[in-house]
Amino acid sequence: MKDGTHSHVLYDTKPLNLEQTKVLYESLGNALQLVGDAVGLPSGPGVDWAALDDEQFEQLCYDVIYAHPKFDSATIRKLGNSRSRDGGRDIEIWEMPLVRGGHRKKWIFQCKLTKGKSLGATKITDIGDMLDQAAANGFGVMTSTLIDATLYTKLDEVCGRRSVAQLNFSSLELNRAIMRNASLRNRYFAS
Residues 144, 171: contact at Cβ < 8 Å? Predict the structure, then answer.
């Protein structure tokens, strides 16, 4: 292969699988963010959560999880429309196994579009029942605001008792995911 100046010989190359492609995509986004930070470029404006309704927010959460390298996007399911009787489970997905044929966890995510206030423990109820009913090994909250200490304590307690892994996305983590992904910015926040 020639790059215009040099010739390169590549050995033992093969196409990337879906998980490897997602990891590369995430790494490139992180590298671009670091370069932008190094030269003093702004990371972008904050996300205007008021531009979304509940259904659009759940679809955004679906897209964030779908693109996450930890998960097998072929297994993702959005359970009904927002505010439907889904037992608190908005998104279900299985994680990618670490080794071929290895054990993988079933995850459930609850999405909460919240205006202004932090998300507290009283806004997410029956976590234990939800985990038991879904037979989930992983749980996450995705919200457009900060997660209150009372909710983190509740999540740590309930998930810890059941040895359930957690991956939570407050507005801070969601903002980062959106800023690294131009297609998400364009799809949900283009003016």
Answer: yes
Q: What is the DSSP letter of 86?
A: S
Asked if residue 140 belongs to a domain, the reply is yes
Binned average pLDDT, 10 residues per bin, the chain of 191 residues: 77 83 82 71 69 94 95 92 64 88 90 90 91 94 96 96 96 90 87 66
Please classify residue 41 by burial: count the beta carbons closer than 10 Å to its beta carbon, then call 0-12 exposed, 13-18 middle and 19+ buried.
exposed
Q: What span, in angstroms and rounded, lies between the C-alpha atoms of 104 and 32?
A: 31
**Residue 146: both structure tokens together:** 């900060």
Question: Which DSSP state fits 96?
Answer: P
Q: pTM of the predicted model, to two decimals?
A: 0.76
CATH number of domain containing 72: 3.40.1340
In a domain, residue 13? The reply is: no
How many CA atoms does the CB half-sphere of 141 hold within 13 Å? 26
Element (H, E) at 140: strand 138-143
Whole-angstrom CA distances from 102 to 49, 97, 137, 164 are 39, 5, 15, 18
Which pLDDT belongs to residue 21?
Answer: 85
